[in-house]
Write a structure and sequence with these properties.
Helices cover 42% and strands 2% of the residues. By secondary structure, the protein is an all-alpha fold. Helix 1 crosses helix 5 (69-92), helix 2 (21-30) runs antiparallel to helix 3 and helix 7 (154-167) crosses helix 8. It is elongated and about 90 Å long.
Length: 268
């Protein structure tokens, strides 16, 4: 084990939760009093802020003020240890004992995360069933594929279908484009919805599917609300069912609305 790894072990596991006085007290004991005062002056009150500041030990343009070399070295060493600890946490979080990793000292800061984790090894522990693990594993695999060869786990497909319906197409596309390989395209989702019979038809009650769902959640109660038919300002047409929608339909013998009632074979 290298010296850097030994020093990382001396850092507390909950260091990333330290803030304000708790963080300053730790820095004072671990690094030094002068270094702590430099952080206080700049209102760097936690690890997250410290790692995002480009230059903690600034130097005035006219050279009238500068930080001593020893102090600069101590602060920089402390920042380097924090970065190494962050990389170590990133590698080991949610990764089971069967995952393959290599020593931290052999890793470059710009190395792809997909090379740090053996994504082809399935973890049999319960954590592997968490959605975040499934999504990350799917994303890392797609990072090694071309755009035309992206593949998605069934759980990711189901999540994407629901997410697109709740958030809308624009919000979904914004997330998908900026997280390439994480979510399927709009065309892929449409094919997925058609394959699972997700198409909605006006006046169609899916009692069988509702019964199956209630059985899966062990519930015997259903709550419904009354809807009022508004004034129709224009005619809506469903090309999938070849019917006009939005009108009040007739009732069948079971007092249920007739499906596809306003259907026409001619526009004459």
């Amino acid at each position: 084990m290298s010296c850097e790894q030994n020093e990382i072990l001396t850092l507390p596991d909950d260091l990333w939760s330290y803030s304000d006085d708790v963080f300053y007290d730790f820095v004072k004991e671990y690094v030094g009093e002068i270094e702590t005062e430099i952080l206080k002056i700049q209102r760097i009150k936690n690890v997250q802020t410290l790692l995002q500041v480009p230059d903690v030990c600034f130097i005035a343009d006219d050279m009238t003020f500068m930080v001593r070399a020893g102090v600069r070295f101590n602060i920089q060493q402390f920042i380097n240890l924090l970065k190494l600890q962050f990389e170590s946490r990133l590698i080991n979080v949610n990764v089971g004992p069967s995952a393959t990793t290599t020593p931290i000292e052999n890793k470059k800061s710009d190395q792809c995360l997909c090379n740090l984790i053996n994504i082809d090894t399935e973890n049999n522990q319960q954590e592997s069933k968490l959605f975040i693990n499934i999504l990350l594993r799917n994303l890392l695999k797609n990072m090694k594929r071309s755009k035309n060869n992206f593949q998605f786990d069934p759980i990711v497909m189901k999540f994407s279908s629901v997410f697109r319906g709740l958030a809308g197409r624009n919000a979904y596309e914004f997330i998908r484009i900026n997280m390439l390989g994480s979510l399927p395209s709009d065309t892929t989702l449409k094919n997925y919805d058609e394959n699972i019979n997700f198409q909605l038809k006006e006046c169609e009650f899916r009692f069988g599917q509702m019964k199956d769902y209630l059985g899966s959640i062990k519930s015997q109660y259903v709550f419904s609300s009354e809807d009022a038919t508004g004034v129709i300002s224009c005619v809506s047409y469903d090309c999938n069912t070849d019917c006009f929608t939005g009108f009040t339909t007739l009732l069948n013998n079971n007092d249920l609305p007739v499906i596809n009632h306003f259907k026409t074979n001619s526009y004459n």
